[in-house]
Specification:
Helices cover about 40% and strands about 35% of the residues. With about 170 residues, the protein is of the alpha+beta class.
């Protein structure tokens, strides 16, 4: 469990969320845990390979994820999510949340490459309402970031055998 990898993902999360959605994230705590399950209603999973293998999981409270999406939609489309149909919102919501995870991971991978660590990342897997889905029995690092709209949890699993395709099947995503 390389601390520079963990710190890079946490610092990239804080920066990217602020840049994309104008929301401030504040670091609450970082700890080592065992047996990773999805605990929040919105999650993005990205597998990484090369020098380090495993996955990064970004989980969001509903209030935080909706506020991030609303702020980003205002920037791109110039309208509030209240002015969208349910179907339009569902489609955009999943895409925007996946893009947030993708941008954070991309930023982290670039920083790590500059430190001599090569990592390739998968496309983001976005899970909605998949609480309690078991991801791994192995030990992982968890960092909690807070906002006034709720929290974001970053979980990093260093696991040579992690299989995102199995998670897709288990979640029916």
């Amino acid at each position: 469990m390389d601390p520079k990898i963990i710190l890079t993902f946490v610092s990239s999360s804080i920066k990217v969320v602020k840049d994309l959605s104008r929301l401030e994230l504040y670091r609450n705590r970082t700890s080592i845990k065992r047996q990773k399950r999805i605990n929040k209603p919105v999650a993005v999973i990205i597998q990484f390979t090369e020098d380090v293998k495993g996955c990064i999981i970004f989980e969001f409270d509903k209030g935080l994820s909706v506020k991030m999406v609303d702020n980003m939609v205002k920037e791109v489309y110039g309208k509030n999510i209240e002015n969208m149909s349910n179907e339009e919102f569902k489609e955009i919501f999943k895409d925007v949340v996946g893009e947030i995870g993708n941008q954070i991971s991309g930023s982290s991978v670039t920083e790590l490459f500059n430190m001599g660590v090569k990592i390739n990342i998968s496309y983001p897997l976005v899970l909605i309402n998949s609480e309690d889905l078991l991801i791994s029995h192995k030990q992982y690092v968890e960092s909690v970031l807070d906002t006034v709209y709720g929290s974001m949890v970053i979980s990093i699993l260093f696991d040579d055998l992690f299989d995102i395709e199995k998670i897709k099947m288990d979640s029916k995503a």
